[in-house]
Design goal:
It is built from ten helices and four strands; from the N terminus they run βααβαααβαβαααα. It is α/β, with parallel strands linked by helices. The protein has two domains: about 130 residues, 5'-nuclease (Rossmann fold, 3-Layer(aba) Sandwich), CATH 3.40.50; about 45 residues, no CATH class. It has a four-stranded parallel β-sheet with strand order 2-1-3-4, sandwiched between helices. The two termini are about 20 Å apart.
Length: about 190
């Protein structure tokens, strides 16, 4: 069981393919993942705004299942810290506050400019793009990583994806390096 802990920003949970990968890898104990109810609200509201045909009840069900599937994922009690933090976008302070209270090693986000190194380093936290984070963990444990990816891919039924199609989906998600490295393990995914 890994103690390495990643706080997942809302933009990681927003996309089903990205969310599925991170959750499966966490369930496989490659690392721990954490988030907050505020982060849940953020990704759900963003998805409903972009895709109004979606049902809130379905997304809330996804949220509940995520919380049940991953151990110790929710962070509480970070709110008093928010006003003391300084980030380029004040709306992201809750993410850093949660990472501090949750004793996270990294914030995984697609918005690295919103989490500059100088604002995070004094807390022993870094920000990483999901592609960098995932390719690093693929290097650490290729077999375990590939088994997790295979499980995610095999759950996709409508439509089903072969390994090449799934890697194409990862590239579309901005996981170019990860997808490229996974081509070396295509028979395992």
């Amino acid at each position: 069981m890994s103690d390495y802990t990643a706080l997942l920003d809302a933009n990681i949970l927003y996309s089903a393919p990205m969310r599925d990968i991170f959750l499966q890898l966490a369930v496989a104990d490659l690392f721990q993942v954490k988030w907050t109810q505020d982060i849940h609200c953020e990704w759900i509201e963003a998805l409903l705004k972009k895709e109004p045909h979606r049902k809130r009840t379905d997304l809330e069900r996804t949220r509940r299942l995520m919380d049940l599937a991953t151990r110790d994922c929710l962070i509480y009690g970070y709110e008093p810290l928010i006003s003391f933090l300084n980030l380029p976008d004040p709306r992201d302070r809750h993410v850093l506050a949660a990472a501090i209270v949750g004793r996270c090693d990294v914030i995984v986000t697609q918005n690295l400019k919103d989490f500059p190194c100088d604002a995070l380093s004094s807390y022993g936290i870094e920000a990483q793009h999901p592609d960098d984070f995932l390719s690093y963990h693929l290097n650490l444990s290729p077999r375990l990583f590939c088994r997790a990816i295979q499980k995610v891919r095999q759950r996709l039924k409508n439509p089903p994806y072969n390994p090449q199609e799934y890697l194409s989906t990862l590239r579309q998600q901005g996981l170019v390096t990860t997808a490229s490295k996974l081509t070396d393990f295509i028979s395992l995914i």
